[in-house]
Amino acid sequence: xxxxxxxxxxxxxxxxxxxxxxxxxxxxxxxxxxxxxxxxxxxxxxxxxxxxxxxxxxxxxxxxxxxxxxxxxxxxxxxxxxxxxxxxxxxxxxxxxxxxxxxxxxxxxxxxxxxxxxxxxxxxxxxxxxxxxxxxxxxxxxxxxxxxxxxxxxxxxxxxxxxxxxxxxxxxxxxxxxxxxxxxxxxxxxxxxxxxxxxxxxxxxxxxxxxxxxxxxxxxxxxxxxxxxxxxxxxxxxxxxxxxxxxxxxxxxxxxxxxxxxxxxxxx
Length: 268
What we know:
single chain, alpha/beta, Rossmann fold, 4-stranded parallel β-sheet, two-stranded antiparallel sheet, 48% helix, ComF/GntX_DNA_util-trans
């Protein structure tokens, strides 16, 4: 009997020590996170001017100074801009929302994310898209019902995913959806055709390369009438058109293409 009492007391003592250790561990963990945040805030430098940036990737001054698209009236739908509308005359998507032209520093950032796996750029680029999206909503007369709207990203083929290890469009779209409390589904679209890299290809070559390259999950599409497709950059619109065709064939009523940058054609 005495042995059982002693065993019970020892067990209670062990549980008490475990609770104390757990409590101290949580306090130490919280303190470390606070210290890390303070260090990041006090030491972080702007990627562009190297001045202190209050923990952000770029400082507030550079955020205001770098160029971006800004339509004087109406929404942020660039298809309302005649010069852009002329580029995508045979489009199958309904709206085009881009933050900026494909110039410095966006071209550098997008290449660093895509080819150098600089993942800290994904939240920054998503933040830029969030500004563009919120500005678009404030100017648009359309009413967006969140339950019928879905965010997705331009998919890459499994072979490329295995080679690169990630999809930069997926990273940006995921952060964007979280920031705006919108439904995100990475499995809405799939790329079933593995083609060559589109860098440097003409419009005809791109269309041939992307013909029947994508498929959509028809069961998931039934839930949504408006799909926002996010990518890093739009050039000829071939990818956007092929994806829009697949989505509308599956029953989607409206397709919005949203990219960080728009690569404008060079003047001849």
